[in-house]
């Protein structure tokens, strides 16, 4: 079952702050994200979602920007901290005539039993979730043996000049939006026990995609 960290007031406070930030951001999010998708993220959503199969959980689904990219035959559950982001995802799902179970919840304590999904997806959100090690351990917990983890995010660049710019930019983005520019989930994914199947870095190493699986 999900870990009980009701005893961690720092994490609870940080998560509350993220919820407030995203509730305010929800109306502007799609316009801003469309810009970053054009200049930086390319076909990352299609790359991730096209590999999803079976019972799929998208952690931090936001406004549902991945919905058009999933195969039609999956059974999708989407979780997010922000009811305002989820309300937009709900409208997108209705518009696309797509059935999605949308749950308000926290990536640090996924409200699902062990081994309940074939695929877990998380896109452009590990930059934002407070404790990504706990979140990735949770993703591992809810995956069935042999299940697939599919990630895409912006991470610390392989280029020294870009890394300097990211460190400077991050001072602002963490303060304003809890958004980290210099994280890299890859080593945590392997530490957690996943085996990497495919892995790609683009745009000076800033955009990283990972397809991995849990042991059988
Ligand atoms: C940058 S947005 C990305 C949304 C979506 N994945 C996308 O690709 O457009 C980050 C999302 O992470 C969610 N989030 C942040 N911390 C979270 C947490 N602890 N649990 C669940 N969702 C969280 C926010 O509410 C927000 O919707």
What does this structure look like?
The two termini are 19 Å apart. The chain is α/β, with parallel strands linked by helices and 216 residues long. It is globular and about 45 Å long. The longest helix has 33 residues, at 9-41. The chain has helices spanning 9-41, 44-49, 83-96, 132-142, 160-177, 186-191; strands spanning 55-59, 75-80, 100-104, 117-123, 143-154, 195-202, 207-213. Helix 1 (9-41) crosses helix 3. Helix content is 41%, strand content 23%. The mean pLDDT is 96. The chain has a seven-stranded mixed β-sheet with strand order 3-2-1-4-5-7-6. The structure holds S-adenosylmethionine (SAM). The site of S-adenosylmethionine has 21 residues, from helix 1.
What is the residue-averaged pLDDT?
96
- Individual helix count: 6
Rg is 16 Å
Report the count of strand segments.
7
Side-by-side strand order of the widest sheet: 3-2-1-4-5-7-6
Task: Estimate percent helicity.
Answer: 40-55%
User: Major β-sheet, in short?
Assistant: 7 strands, mixed
Spans of at least 5 consecutive residues with low confidence: none
Please state the overall shape, judged from the principal axes of the Cα atoms. Answer: globular
Distance between the termini: 19 Å
Look at the helices and sheets and give the structural class. alpha/beta
Order of helices and strands: HHEEHEEHEHHEE
Strand content: 15-25%
- Ligand species: S-adenosylmethionine
Oligomer: single chain
